[in-house]
Write a structure and sequence with these properties.
This protein has one domain. The two termini are 27 Å apart. The radius of gyration is 20 Å and the shape is globular. 82% of the residues lie in helices and 0% in strands. With 330 residues, it is an all-alpha fold. Helix 11 packs antiparallel against helix 12. The protein contains 13 helices and no strands.
Length: 330
């Protein structure tokens, strides 16, 4: 039990560090550095994920699992496209809105996750839990109304990314299984086997690359020439981009691992705490303006997140107590 708790804490810590790092690097490259091609940059991220995932499998760092049915591969393909769109929406929005506003909008993800979990998995939460999501959304509405750097295109791109992120989390929790050789061997004989985090990333990457490649050709036809030009002007650009891609790989890996350990909705709640840190750091680094109304709105949202977490803990304790009573016959 203690070992599982320590492992979970380490995974969550790594997830926090990777998420904050890639977000700030993305903003730096897109806005400060001036490489205004978020779709191409996201494509580079997925290429790195594909290479590192294949390497990990080839050198047996992780157990190999295989997709044995078309139906299962279809699920993974849908997840891959949803994942690509979630990352794409967030990266595109960083060109037009500050990190703080991006994170404020991202705080509404639990709301959309609850909706998708209900529609797709018929998973119901208590009335109290659903009520706690009202201040989450209301606070963001207030923050949006008072945002001095509001940009409609950036707002919509971020909102699409948030919806896709919520859908991805629900699908991800559905497909993931614990990591381990025994579990992998056991699941590999199932007709509808689930995948561990690394195998899922391995199979997702090619589909995501194709999806992002199409978007790059349509939306950013000059991206490759701009990449070569930036590399010639500043040799450090390649190193910065490669480092950004590597951290993006760590984000994906730790994101899958956290989902496998804590579930989809809890992952989104943890993400809101991460959003507070990102907001503070981004304001300090990038000096983007904030208003009192925006601060109040984001505070209301975080209160809603805290109420939501408390409600989830109470529901979990109640469920555990009912299970114990059922076992003892009380």
């Amino acid at each position: 039990m203690a070992r599982d708790a320590s492992r979970g804490a380490l995974i969550v810590t790594a997830w926090y560090a990777a998420n904050i790092g890639v977000l700030l690097l993305n903003k730096y490259i897109l806005s400060v550095y001036g490489f205004k091609f978020p779709v191409f940059m996201t494509l580079c991220h997925m290429c790195m994920c594909s290479v590192l995932s294949a390497t990990a499998r080839e050198f047996k760092i992780v157990p190999k699992q295989f997709i044995r049915t078309r139906r299962h591969y279809g699920k993974v393909a849908v997840l891959a496209m949803t994942f690509a769109l979630s990352v794409l929406g967030g990266n595109v929005s960083l060109r037009y809105i500050p990190v703080s506003f991006n994170q404020a909008l991202g705080a509404t993800t639990p709301f959309f996750t609850a909706i998708f979990a209900y529609l797709m998995l018929h998973k119901k939460e208590s009335t109290a839990t659903y009520m706690t999501l009202v201040p989450v959304v209301g606070g963001i509405a207030l923050a949006t109304w008072g945002e001095p750097s509001f940009n409609f295109f950036g707002f919509m791109a971020c909102l699409v990314g948030v919806c896709c992120r919520a859908l991805k989390s629900v699908l991800q929790g559905w497909l993931l299984s614990p990591v381990g050789e025994k579990e992998a061997e056991k699941l590999s004989h199932s007709s509808e086997n689930k995948l561990d985090s690394m195998s899922l990333l391995y199979y997702m990457s090619p589909v995501a690359i194709m999806t992002l490649g199409v978007f790059t050709l349509i939306m950013e036809p000059n991206a490759i020439s701009a990449f070569y030009e930036a590399a010639e002007l500043d040799p450090w650009f390649i190193a910065i981009l490669l480092g950004n891609c590597f951290v993006a790989y760590l984000v994906n890996l730790t994101n899958f691992l956290v989902t496998a350990h804590v579930g989809a909705l809890t992952l989104q709640v943890l993400g809101n705490a991460k959003g507070v840190v990102c907001t503070v750091v981004s304001i300090m680094l990038f000096r983007n303006p904030v208003t009192f109304r925006g601060i109040v709105g984001y505070t209301v949202t975080m209160i809603g997140v805290w109420l939501y977490s408390s409600s989830k803990r109470k529901s979990a304790r109640l469920a555990n107590a009912l299970m114990e009573n059922a076992k003892t016959g009380v």
